[in-house]
Amino acid sequence: MENLKENLKNYISSLKTERNLSEKSIKAYNCDLSSLVSWLKENNHTEINHSQITEYIKWLQEKKCLKDSSIKRQYVTLK
Fold first, then answer.
1. Are 66 and 60 in contact (CB under 8 A)?
2. What is the pLDDT of residue 39?
3. For helices 23-42 and 2-17, angle between their N-to-C axes, nearest 10 degrees
4. Pseudo-torsion of CA 37, 43, 48, 52, nearest 10°?
5. Alpha-carbon distance 56 to 78, whole Å?
6. For residue 66, how far is the Cα from the chain centroid?
7. pLDDT 10s digit of each residue in the chain, 79 long?
8. CA–CA dist 11, 19 (Å, integer)
9. Rounded distance, CA 20 to CA 18, Å?
10. Phi first, then psi: what are they for 34, rounded to 5°?
11. Nearest Cα to 77, choosing from 32, 25, 10, 41?
12. For the chain, N or C: smaller number of CB within 10 Å?
């Protein structure tokens, strides 16, 4: 899990330097990806794969009751 957190930190840093995204976009990416990392940890997942992403998206829909637009944004972030 620590490796995943480190990869997240590096990815967010690259969004700033390589993609020149706005602070608002970077915060959204960080929030979405941090939510995924927290969910993985809470559900005792040590790796991430397609089935876990599907499970996560389903959780967002059913448990978090997010709007479709928010779920789509999260999905795009995960791509």
1. yes
2. 93
3. 170
4. -120
5. 11
6. 14
7. 567 778 888 888 888 888 888 899 999 989 999 999 899 989 998 878 899 999 999 999 888 888 888 888 888 888 7
8. 11
9. 6
10. -65, -35
11. 32
12. C
- pTM here? 0.80
CA distance 60 to 31: 14
The secondary structure of the chain as a DSSP string is -HHHHHHHHHHHHHHHHTS---HHHHHHHHHHHHHHHHHHHHTT-SS--HHHHHHHHHHHHHTS---HHHHHHHHHHH-
The one-letter code for the residue type at 15 is L
